[in-house]
TrEMBL record:
This is Phage tail protein. It comes from the Bacteria. InterPro entries: Tail_protein_I. It comes from Sulfurovum sp. enrichment culture clone C5.
Length: 184
């Protein structure tokens, strides 16, 4: 017998069916998945929308740990920082950023430059990298940021210009630009 309302998530219905209406009897240990019966892994995976059918038990537990962390932190700066570790551990996130327009109002006088963005809008942010990334890596980074960043925030720039040394190792071609990856 299912006593949950119709609009409840599928994972609660699965747990309810499995435990026979005793949802409150399911207790998780403090350390994730230590001592958890392996038959519960499928239900936990359903709870966090993760497919673990192709993984071994130990791999599935690791995937679930990451999924739980990610689900709890989505929409925070912490989630962005954690994801940026794969691209550049020393990356810098600058919030409240706006891009100046190339309309002649900003002079290149040593005080204000086109790369010295003003910090005025709360929902805009940019990322400064300490290493060069390819265009395909930039696109992957933008895709991940769209998933993990707060919903109202907008990425305006990925800046890696300080990392490019003009020694011929990085070519300006279909793989690399000279470090400024503006997200339109």
């Amino acid at each position: 017998m299912n006593i949950l309302p119709v609009n409840e998530p599928i994972y609660l219905k699965k747990i309810d069916d499995f435990l026979g209406n005793r949802i409150d009897t399911l207790s998780f240990p403090k350390a994730p998945f230590v001592g958890i019966d392996t038959r519960y892994l499928d239900y936990i995976a359903a709870m966090f929308d993760v497919d673990i059918t192709l993984y071994t038990q130990s791999e599935a537990k690791e995937v679930l740990k990451k999924a739980i962390w990610s689900k709890n932190k989505v929409g925070t700066i912490g989630a962005i920082k954690k994801m940026l570790q794969t691209f550049d551990p020393q990356a810098n996130i600058i919030t409240h950023a706006t891009c100046p327009k190339h309309d002649g109002k900003i002079q290149r006088n040593g005080i204000t430059t086109y790369r010295n963005y003003g910090l005025t809008h709360w929902a805009m942010y940019k990322i400064e990298l300490t290493r060069a990334i390819s265009i395909s890596q930039k696109e992957e980074l933008i895709t991940q940021l769209k998933i993990l960043a707060p919903a109202r925030c907008k990425l305006i720039n990925i800046d890696a210009q300080n990392t490019i040394i003009h020694d011929g190792r990085i070519k300006r071609n279909a793989n690399y630009t000279y470090g400024g990856y503006i997200n339109g």
